[in-house]
């Protein structure tokens, strides 16, 4: 069994892959920058307990973290639980991606993982969208990572409105009723702006990226906000909740032998 941990800015996702490469559980914990090594280890133990899985069955682990202050802490916590160091997505890891970037290891490890999975699972060229704390959109052509667009995520946009405009209240994105395009209350107007605005931004960017690609693209989206936003998009977008996890599993396989020798 392979343990995969994805530390994002909002959530830390924990997945356990069985011998056939299928997820036997997928768990989400909140990301807390101030967690100690022991707290991280206790939380992971709790996840195994919750899903009735054995820590002793884990043969190896892989970690992606885009929260620098937690990378070493989580590495140590996982290492303590499974008895060997996890592979950490970063410099030295073979990805198979030809990353067109000025500073190579600046690209977020979650973006590296979702790109590796998209190349494996979907026709090229592709646009990969991750709607988490930030919304990222990447263009992939074959194994070439052409570049990225970074935008504030849904919740960040909503929080910025209420924090910076005195008369706008803090509200939640969740409503039972469908969000009308034209709000007749301040809250509906804010929700429309953020939801339809995000969907329109994504649709518009897909068009621009398709122009750059010079041909039609496969579009795949993941992340905690994706399902909410895709409902309002006009492009045909595949929803793949497990893209980062699948990428981590593929990266583990690509690097397992080298990691064992290290
Ligand atoms: N189960 C959920 N239901 C609704 N919204 C969610 C859920 N989980 C996360 N979110 C939203 O998605 C965002 C986090 O998504 P996620 O992909 O986990 O981000 P990150 O990788 O940045 O931690 C949060 O801003 C939150 O608004
Ligand atoms: C773009 C991100 C902030 C997304 O993080 P997330 O929303 O998944 O928490 C993260 O991938 C990151 O910090 N990237 C480093 C900069 C880059 O990818 O160019
Ligand atoms: K995450």
UniProtKB/TrEMBL annotation:
The record's EC number reads 2.7.1.33
- SUPFAM superfamilies named among the record's database cross-references: Actin-like ATPase domain
List the GO molecular function terms. Answer: ATP binding; metal ion binding; pantothenate kinase activity
Main location, first listed in the record: cytoplasm
Give the metabolic or biological pathway: Cofactor biosynthesis; coenzyme A biosynthesis; CoA from (R)-pantothenate: step 1/5
Cite the binding residues for K(+). 130
The name of this protein is Type III pantothenate kinase
> Could you give the cofactor binding note from the entry?
A monovalent cation. Ammonium or potassium.
Task: State any GO BP term from the record.
Answer: coenzyme A biosynthetic process
Taxonomically, which superkingdom?
Bacteria
Known partners and oligomeric status: Homodimer.
Class of the enzyme per the UniProt entry, highest EC level: transferase
Q: Which Pfam families does the record cross-reference, listed alphabetically? A: Pan_kinase (PF03309)
Q: Which residues bind ATP?
A: 6-13, 133
InterPro entries (alphabetical):
ATPase_NBD, Type_III_PanK
């Amino acid at each position: 069994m392979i343990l995969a941990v994805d530390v994002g800015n909002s959530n830390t996702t924990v997945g356990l892959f069985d011998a056939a490469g299928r997820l036997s559980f997928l768990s989400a914990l909140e990301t807390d920058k101030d967690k100690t090594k022991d707290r991280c280890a206790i939380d992971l133990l709790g996840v195994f307990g919750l899903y009735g899985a054995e820590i002793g069955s884990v043969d190896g682990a892989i970690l992606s973290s885009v929260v620098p202050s937690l990378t070493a802490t989580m590495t140590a916590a996982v290492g303590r639980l499974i008895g060997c160091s996890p592979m950490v997505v970063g410099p030295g890891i073979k990805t198979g991606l030809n990353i067109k970037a000025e500073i190579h290891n600046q690209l977020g490890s979650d973006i590296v993982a979702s790109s590796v999975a998209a190349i494996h699972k979907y026709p090229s060229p592709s646009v990969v969208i991750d709607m988490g704390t930030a919304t990222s959109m990447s263009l992939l052509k074959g194994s070439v990572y052409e570049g990225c667009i970074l935008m504030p995520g849904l919740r960040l946009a909503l929080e910025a409105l209420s924090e910076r405009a005195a008369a706008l209240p803090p509200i939640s994105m969740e409503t039972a009723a469908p969000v009308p395009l034209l709000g007749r209350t301040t809250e509906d107007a804010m929700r429309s702006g953020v939801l339809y605005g995000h969907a329109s931004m994504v649709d518009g960017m897909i068009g621009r990226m398709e122009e750059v690609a010079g041909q039609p693209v496969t579009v795949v989206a993941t992340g905690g906000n994706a399902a909410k936003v895709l409902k309002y998009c006009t492009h045909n977008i595949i929803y793949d909740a497990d893209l980062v996890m699948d990428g981590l599993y593929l990266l583990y396989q690509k690097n397992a032998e080298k990691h064992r020798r290290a």
